[in-house]
Each structure stands twice: as structure tokens, then as C-alpha cells.
Amino acid sequence: MRLYINIDHVATVRQARLTDEPDPVRAAMLAELAGADGITVHLREDRRHIQDRDVRTLMETARTAVNLELAAVSEIVELACELAPLQATLVPERREEITTEGGLDLSSAARLRLVGATLDRLREARVRTSLFIDPYQKAVRAAAQLGVDAVELHTGEYANALGGSRDEQLLRLEAAAALGRDLGLAVHAGHGLTYENVTPVAALADLEELSIGHSVVSRAVLVGIERAVREMAELVRGARTH
Ligand code: PXP
């Protein structure tokens, strides 16, 4: 299991004062030193946290892999093709949302055409492609038909659920991951994962990558980013040995 650390919210603190600290790129370096397998950043169309400069600098300095999250918006897609990170994950975006609320809508021919054309453009630039989708069989099948390399299963509903309903959400994630693997996809997961809820997800055998941001950055404010990443990495890597 690879652990990608999402550093968007280091940039959120910086943008709160429109200054130059804390620098998310420095945070990325420390996260790598603490054992992150990769760094995730979401370059939003509204630039509310990560800025173009952050992605450019990260591309020059990262020693691990960069996963760029982006919406299927031509300005951002062209920048992704120019910078050519190892991986690009297409996500839905709405200006009024606090965070990514659901997986990509792959339910209509028009949506499939738009996502398919964006994937073609990213592939031309030799970028590995991933789609952020809800953990439903239909969405996994639609993603596979688009010829994508990977899917990232949205773990938000799992994270928000309590008790028995959390177990149901975990089973749904497990079934979607198994189908993805059967269809030849790499299967990732993320959103809303915390130190408290990550272990059952990290234990799912068909998942190979997790992307975790808010919980790690929140803990980093209190204990430092190296310790916060190390502690999350221990939970993620230990999950399958229990
Ligand atoms: N994966 C995707 C596609 C996301 O959009 C986000 C949030 O930016 C994450 C993972 C990380 O979510 P969180 O910050 O809740 O860990």
C-alpha cells in the first residue's frame, strides 16, 4: 500500500493571509522524509489553496511521485500536460463546495465524452490517469470502459458513517475494489480518512494507494508534519499485518 500525502491544506493556511508561509512544497519535502510514497495536490480552478507556482516548484523538487488532482477544465488540463506529473486524478469540482463532495459523474454520454477526451489528452502527455469515483459497481465499470489506468474510490461516505452503516460502506468499498482489480484497474482510495478510521480501509487487499490530507495536516499543526506522516504511515502499513 502506497501512502500519498495531500498538502493542499498547508496552502490553505498560507492563503488565509495571502503570504508566503507555510510553504506546501517544504511540507512535501518533510512528508517525503517521513515516509510518504507520493505527494498529492489539487490545483483547483478557483485557486483557493494550491497555486500554479506550488505545482511547478513541487515538480522540480519532489523526490517521490506527484499526483495532481484536477477537474476536466481545459486550462488546468493543459497545465497538467505541460508539467507531466506521474499521475493525474480527475475529480469533480464545484465552486461553492467546501471539499470534493462526490465522485465523477460518468452517467451520461456527454460526461463520458468529456472525461474520455481529457484522458486522451493526458495520455498523450504520458501522464498516468486516475478517476475519482464513488464506490459503486456501475461507476467502476464505466471507468474501466474509458481505459483509465486507475480509479480512486471516494471514502467520504465510509468516513461519515457510524456503527453498522460504516461496516456497510466498508463492504461497498471492498466490492468496488475487487471489481476494479478484476477489470484490470489499479485501485486507490481517499477522502475523509483519519487516524481513527483508516485501518479497515488500509487493510483492504485490493487497494494499492491511499491519498490523505486534512487529518494529517491537522495533526501536523500540533505535532509537526514529520511525526504526523510517520504515525499515519505506521497505521497504513500495519493494517494488513493485524
Ligand atoms: N482524494 C481526492 C480525490 C480528494 O479530492 C481529496 C481532498 O482534496 C482527498 C483524496 C483527500 O481528502 P482528505 O483531505 O479528506 O484526506
Please give a structural write-up.
The protein has 242 residues and is α/β, with parallel strands linked by helices. It has one domain: TIM Barrel, CATH 3.20.20. Helix content is 49%, strand content 17%. It has eleven helices and eight strands. It has helices at residues 8-17, 24-33, 52-61, 74-83, 109-124, 137-145, 156-160, 163-182, 198-202, 214-223, 225-238; strands at residues 2-6, 38-42, 65-70, 87-90, 128-133, 150-154, 186-190, 209-212. It has an eight-stranded parallel barrel, surrounded by eight helices. α5 (109-124) links the parallel β4 (87-90) and β5. α10 (214-223) packs across α11. The radius of gyration is 17 Å and the shape is globular. The model has no long low-confidence stretch (mean pLDDT 96). The protein binds pyridoxine-5'-phosphate. Pyridoxine-5'-phosphate (PXP) is lined by residues 6, 8, 42, 69, 89, 91, 99-100, 132, 152, 190-193, 211-215. The site of pyridoxine-5'-phosphate has 19 residues, from β8 and α10.
